[in-house]
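Q: Convert this sequence to structure tokens.
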Amino acid sequence: MPIYNLSKDNSILNTFVSELRDVEIQNDPMRFRMNLIRIGEVMAYEISKKLNYAKKSIQTPLGMHDSSGISDDLVIGTILRAGLPMHEGFLNYFDRAENAFVSAYRKYIDKKHFDIHIEYISTPSIDGKTLLLVDPMLATGSSLELAYKALLTKGKPSNVHFACVIASKDGVAYLSEHLDLDEIHLWCADIDPELNIKSYIVPGLGDAGDLAYGEKI
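A:
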């Protein structure tokens, strides 16, 4: 599984991620959502370099021009609810893509242990298409794995790109072990060293869904 850690090179992406982490800036939910959108756009641009392209001739006002465009059939998949702003950023760039949504949540057995439950899937066929599965936080990796396997019930994609803002080393290792497939590419804006006792990423940024949309009961 190829792994791309985009924080290794300095870019405007690092500024957006830093603002997501900052407890003062987090007090502005609109700013938090906007940074997730912008990170989605930057990551979409980076991923676009790995897609397939086809040449075509286009008519300009003054003549013909040989150009190229993305030839992949794209499906952008998102885990609700935290992934929605990031999804919007991807869709801003891949505006002709189809869209898929998966509802997944942690059901705690006790304070330390939980299971991941899938409640809802809304997706087109992904058979033979390029799937972009985006989720801001990759903690244990189990949510992304289950969401991916749930989408596989709707077809087998030809290529797969996972995109997250912040991943833990444990989550990256888990996906590499359980989904060690050449066609899956994992993109991270940053990778953090550990998980705490509740499996939250440290230093991380907190609960992305709550920061974007408010606390839930």
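The chain has one domain: 3-51+70-213.
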